[in-house]
Fold this protein.
Amino acid sequence: MKIIIALLLTLSVCFSGNSQILKKQIPENLVVLTFDDATASQYSIVAPLLKQFGFGATFFVCEFPTKSADRSAYMNWQQIKELDKMGFEVANHTRSHAAVSKVPKAQFIDELNYIERKCDSMGIEKPSTFAYPGYNLSLPVMETLLEKGYKFARAGGSRAYDPMNDYPLLVPSWAMNATNKEQIMAAFNEARNGRIVVLTIHGVPDVEHPWVNTPPELFKEYLQYLAEHHFKVISLRDLNNYINVDEAIRTIVPDLNKSLKN
């Protein structure tokens, strides 16, 4: 198993091997925007704003469980298809927002396959990136993602992504909400010296889950800042342009402890 082998590797990797992780230099001010749970506002508010600013993004979609029969708080698959047609990445967040470390492997695979099949039926590119629902992760889960061919997986950790030292299936991120503007603004300053800032964002606004709500006015303020300060804003999938994922997986030891800190 690739992860078990990786865990047995020495932590000191020779420079010649480590240098091959990068296909090209990571530019300064590189930011990845990711959106979770397929909330309706991501289609009606977020996508038009991103297009206005010329920014890329990843939308991690699921069919979020709700007690109500009214699904209007979430996107339907035709709207998700429209995001794909706009050029955004549509990626896998499991079918039911499952706590993936707590379900059997077969169930996890079913959760992944459901989103993959839905994408295929809609003519959307097969997902190659994943986001852990609730930042719930484990080594067996990562092993399954490797077996399924996933290239990157986004976790938590509230720190910048260092491609030379962070395992590609443990990409750290900051979670945005209505109350942590100071933290997010400080995070943008971390996009330098080869490090990449990745953000986890939910609804803009998020009616169903107010604790992860981002007000549209605040979100637009962030986009304006990124534009005015010449940030390059891309999807998680776009990191393939900079990072040799196979080499990173071969040489970097996954460290769950760093990704569990939020």
